[in-house]
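INFO  loader      accepted 1 record
INFO  loader      residues=204
INFO  predictor   begin
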Amino acid sequence: MQDLVPGVRIEWTVYLNGEDIYAPDVDATAVRTHVGMVFQRPNPFPKSIYENVAFGPRMHGMRNRQDLDGLVESSLRQAALWDEVSDKLKQSAYALSGGQQQRLCIARALAMHPGVLLMDEPASALDPIATLRIEELMLELSQAYTIVIVTHNMQQAARVSDRTAFFMVNERRAGFLVELDHTDKMFTNPSDKRTEDYITGRFG
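INFO  predictor   done
INFO  writer      dumping tokens
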């Protein structure tokens, strides 16, 4: 996404399957098909539940209705939403609750069979019950996908992650990595004083 932001200069290297995704010869569109994105607030398309999930595969050439039907069902099942919407696939996605909309957005991302799923505070706009369902879903999906989640909720990070990275922003508003470790160690015995101060609530 960064290459579409005017004025943004890439000053880092990001590897996906051993390949620098910002290398000049890398096809950005191809990279995006392997990386799913779920945003902070649910952002379903103004289409039916079915069409939300089928949109990406259709854009990439899938036309067979039977194949699309199977993919929509499997994606919604993976997102733990099928049982709730199987009888109303033609209804607008906007008719769903906030938590259901977020799971629909997850299903939409999964329909492209991504290798990596990026989640930007996916439960911050949801109520506690919907948040719990999203966290349970993340743990289930982590068995099949690499998930990178951004969260300011320390308890959530401790509950859902295997490894945790703590980032800060300096006086130039540039982000930098403070510490990266296994989650259990990070939350019980961090190596950096700044990490300990943040986790214990001394700042932040």
